[in-house]
Design goal:
1 helix, 4% helix
């Protein structure tokens, strides 16, 4: 006489059928440990942590930064550097980094890297001088190398901050005058500036702005960004000039962005101007107000092209 299957046997059979029919197995493989972790004191109260890219059998979803075992920052997979602020002056800290995948698996911690913040200089209100002669080279599709002239300070330059447009993206020691910036997009124009900083958090004026365009990805055509953008500040106005992109047809419209937001669309009713284009912005804000300005063109197929390099100006 054949006995009916037990509940346990039925459950095992159901589990077997799910696996056999292509049910997904749980991801239990952890990412690799992030390599090349470095920590640099940016001031008496901040440090800059940077690391290399980790790998995973599927994909790295993000990174977590720990200070003595306590998680202090969580970042997406596209970020491989971060500033840790609100630290104490003249204090030793230790940091590790772990990679995380979409299933929540964490890598082993990176080797702990120690750093000591410098002593504060509360009476120091003098900013360092401007870093001079910012130059750079494109390193393929996703990286650039920047170099600049050394700044001077009444006490000491503790770090140099690299800005892309108006966002600080990287920090190096005050003893260094070069930096490699990674994680960029192919075929994209970037505008970089550098500021020197001292232990009292005084920042220098911006260096000269440098435009660099990363190499295009295979199969991608030339950049569709307006080029040679110049902004001249006069009393009550900002005069813009630029060269429209070569798109195989006339470019009749450009969209103007101020401080990251669309401000107006510049339209030529008849044939667009040959060569350089010009436009004058009327400004009523008080002197010292800063504007960031960039453009993009409407292409003959009706889509918006790539953004131009950004220009930052101060109202007179």
């Amino acid at each position: 006489m054949q006995r009916p299957p037990t509940l346990a046997a039925l459950a095992c059979a159901a589990a077997f059928l799910l696996t056999a029919c292509g049910g997904e197995e749980k991801d239990t493989t952890s990412p690799s440990t992030p390599p090349g972790v470095t920590v640099q004191a940016g001031s008496a109260t901040s440090v800059h942590v940077m690391w290399g890219q980790a790998t995973d059998d599927k994909a790295v979803a993000g990174y977590e930064v720990f200070q003595k075992g306590a998680r202090v920052k969580t970042l997406p997979a596209t970020k491989q550097m971060v500033d840790i602020d609100r630290l104490s002056p003249k204090t030793a800290y230790s940091f590790t980094v772990r990679a995380r995948d979409a299933a929540g698996n964490l890598s082993k911690p990176s080797p702990a890297i120690s750093v000591t913040t410098p002593a504060p200089t509360p009476e120091d209100k003098k900013a360092p001088s401007q870093p001079a002669k910012l130059r750079g080279n494109v390193d393929g599709e996703r990286a650039v190398t920047l170099t600049w002239g050394r700044a001077v300070d009444n006490i000491e330059v503790t770090s140099y901050d690299i800005y892309q447009e108006d966002s600080r993206i990287h920090t190096v020691s005050g003893s260094e005058t070069s930096a490699r910036v990674t994680g960029l997009r192919p075929g994209t124009v970037y505008t970089f500036t550098v500021r020197a900083r001292d232990a009292a958090e005084n920042s220098s004026p911006d260096s000269n702005a440098l435009d660099l365009t990363t190499e295009a990805a295979p199969g991608k055509g030339p950049s569709t960004a307006p080029s040679d953008v110049k902004a001249t500040v006069r009393k009550g106005t900002v005069e813009l000039t630029w060269t429209p992109p070569q798109t195989g047809g006339p470019v009749k419209e450009h969209q103007l962005f101020l401080n990251g937001k669309p401000a107006t669309t510049i339209v030529w009713g008849a044939a667009p101007p040959a060569g350089k284009a010009t436009y004058t912005i009327t400004v009523t804000d008080k002197p010292g107000t800063r504007y960031s300005i960039k453009l993009r063109a409407k292409l003959p197929d009706g889509k918006w092209g790539d953004f131009s390099a950004q220009r930052t100006v101060e109202v007179r």
